[in-house]
Amino acid sequence: MQLSFTPDEIAAIVQPRARRGATGATICGISALGTARPGELSFLGNPRYKSEVTRTKASVVLVPREYAGKPRSGQLFLVVDQPSVALARVCARIEPLLWPAPPPGVHPSAVIAAGVKVAATATVGPLCVVEAGAVIGERTHLQASVFIGRNAVVGDDCRLMPGVRLYAECRIGHRVRVHANTVIGSDGFGYELVGGRHEKVPQIGTAIIEDDVEIGAGCAVDRARFGRTVVGEGTKIDNLVQVGHNATIGRHCILCGQVGISGSATIGDYAVLGGQVGVA
Q1: What are the residue boundaries of the structural domains of the chain, listed by start?
Q2: Which fold has domain 105-279?
Q3: What are the C-alpha distances in Å from 194 to residues 82, 188, 200, 203, 225?
């Protein structure tokens, strides 16, 4: 993936509060302070790496306002409020090169049932299956081998990566990104011991993913026994996370890798759960 930004183009993206120094280098890459080379962009996102700024060979460095150091000759410091956020703004300009927007339409190998509503601006990739009554919103992209069950709904501006499964009657809001091989709406884990045998309890509820959620690869969000399992607006979920039936996760939470949320648990808004945390 080829990158090419002038220092002025980087500045236009990050809108610095001040500039220190100057460089004529074309920016062709992004690296950490310790490994950056001339022609690359770097940033000071954590004060513990402050000493590396004086040694970095990066041509452009994003630094916070409290950093008082001066750039070397041929080096530009762009002073911003939050260097990590500023870098994310640059990466947002680069991301379309990694995931170029496909033309809208349905791939010939996809299987689309009668009565499905696919927005004219949506893209349905190779080998996808969309069952009867499902709705696919505007500008949404289903990558290869995505399954959308009966009467399921995917909102606008979503991206479902290869192998995502959205089971029947479940719903995804707007601007949601779901990574490869995640399953939404699989049966909750419910059994009753009857006559010495485990008898399955039917799971007839649904799973709801609200707007602006991102779910990592290999996750499972189980459907409710009855009612709803809910992942709240703006929540971000790492890889290999299990959300049990009838759980409610609040708005703008962070769930790190291998978190497990048991059935009927409730997580409030803005909660942060570190790796392998379990909530019962």
Answers
A1: 7-98, 105-279
A2: UDP N-Acetylglucosamine Acyltransferase; domain 1 (2.160.10)
A3: 58, 18, 10, 17, 18
Is the whole model's pTM more than 0.85, yes or no? Answer: yes
Contact at 8 Å (CB) between 154 and 177? no
pLDDT tens profile 119-133: 999 999 999 999 999
For 40-74, the pLDDT digits (tens) are 999 999 999 999 999 999 999 999 999 999 999 99
The CA-atom distances, in angstroms, between 126 and each of 39, 106, 109, 140, 177 are 39, 8, 5, 15, 18
Cα dihedral 151, 152, 153, 157 in deg (nearest 10): -140
Do β-strands 135-136 and 76-80 pair in parallel, antiparallel, or remain unpaired? unpaired
Q: How far is CA 106 from the centre of its chain?
A: 24
Q: Is 179 a catalytic residue?
A: no
Q: Could you give phi then psi for residue 79, rounded to 5 degrees?
A: -90, 120
The phi and psi torsions of 55 (rounded to 5 degrees) equal -105, -10
The residue among 186, 168, 163 whose CA lies nearest residue 243 is 186
Catalytic residue among 107, 179, 245, 252: 245
